[in-house]
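Dear support,

Our group has been running a series of protein-ligand predictions, and this particular one with flavin-adenine dinucleotide is the one our PI (initials K.S.) wants archived with full inputs and outputs. We had some confusion internally about which version of the output was final, so please treat the block below as the authoritative record. The input we submitted was:
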Amino acid sequence: MEMPAPSASVLSRKDRIVDRLRTVLPHDAVISDISETRAYECDALTAYRCPPLCAVLPANTQEVAAVLKICHEMGVPVVPRGSGTSLAGGALPTADSVILGVAKMNQVIETNYDDRYIKVQTGRTNLSVSGAVESNGFFYAPDPSSQLACAIAGNIAMNSGGAHCLKYGVTTNNLMGVTMVTMDGQIVEIGGAHLDAGGLDLLGLICGSEGQLGVVTEATLRILHKPEGARPVLMGYNSAEVAGQVVSDIIKAGILPVAIEYMDEMLIGVCEEFSGAGYPKCEALLIVEVEGSDAEIDEQLSLIKEIAGKHNPVELREAQSADEAARIWAGRKAAFSAIGKISDYMCLDGTIPVSALPHVLKRIGEMSKEFGLDVGNVFHAGDGNMHPLILYDANKPGDLEICEEFGAEILKLCVEVGGCLTGEHGVGIEKRDLMNVQFDPADLEAQMAVKDVFDPAWLLNAAKVFPLETSQSRRAA
Ligand SMILES: Cc1cc2nc3c(=O)[nH]c(=O)nc-3n(C[C@H](O)[C@H](O)[C@H](O)COP(=O)(O)OP(=O)(O)OC[C@H]3O[C@@H](n4cnc5c(N)ncnc54)[C@H](O)[C@@H]3O)c2cc1C
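Confirmed final output from the archive:
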């Protein structure tokens, strides 16, 4: 993975830059010692590492603005960081960049149950947003599997989703407004505690912009009434094609489950071993969950089970208790940790039309043999968001490169069948050089022109998202 050479001018001015930053932040909020900056050298795409010039941990919007003004004046690149759980390398620093971490900014600013929103500082973790409102019977819907750790900041930047997004949508569908600081230190308010705003949908532009347009410091989020109950049903099939057909039949029947999750044979085995979830031995496992009152759940599940039963399942088991439901989910939610226990892996994230599922899974299996690396598949089947996990050995020379090549071929396949390079993890550095596969030069030029408006000097997270050769002239200028 190529990264641009760091600016010698910035590196030579490190002491001056750190001194200036200390004029606007407390001493311990500017981290410059290499033994401490190492903590910021990577995100969850751990194959790539580089300690930053320094890291800053502001406590509020004004401090973020003061930091960005200094970096702007001194021509220093900035990489915004939430909790560092990006799987796409979105928070990977360059040696000449300042990591701007929002971890200290974790306060709830306002909750309003009448109008159903919560306003938080963006360093707050995803799960603790729900935690702040659950005693009043509310929750925040987007639920990435990393929700215990990941911050709302990163969720907004990556437009994150999760298992329950089939019904509730992803971050962009639950975000009402942001306070954002642009690279030159201006504080702007976009959207707010209302359903829609006049003018262009700038909020839609900011959500998913991967830290390229500004640093988001506060967010107004929609909160929802907790459903009365939820219940999953687990279905095992001995054919990926049949499991794909079941997904498609459920959606076609007009039922809207809250989640439809898919795991292939390798993942079923690994997750069962890791969590003792009680999964059957089979080729494909579906977890389908519905929500509502007991009567609503019973009605939806009886329709779903009728559809599932027509396709000869190896197992068709409805959770009979809250404990059993939690056990069914425990295996799926632990998928990444379970794989991480047995091997180094790279988690991909692409989206395909649901009908292309059997073909794509078959091709991934064939490619696995061609590249000589094992792959497991787990994904949000209801919306076609795949997460192939390629296993490799980080200590074996050349394995990472083969893994990257294999990953690129899978993502190209997603585009080829009418899907998309990313589902919910973003582009970062991982898919940066594949953007040409999805977009033609005019598309990329239009996207870069948007960045020109917000960050004309290309100082914010500039080595990400766009292929390096495509953004070269802008970054150099
Ligand atoms: C085990 C595991 C499971 C995961 N499961 C899911 C899942 O189910 N669904 C899903 O969508 N993702 C998932 N992810 C990926 C990751 O958790 C999400 O992308 C998450 O939103 C990143 O949040 P973060 O706070 O850690 O952001 P970081 O990793 O710190 O940063 C991510 C991006 O956001 C930018 N950024 C950070 N803060 C700001 C800010 N204040 N303003 C502007 N830009 C900013 C960064 O520059 C970077 O480009 C998973 C990751 C792991 C490790």
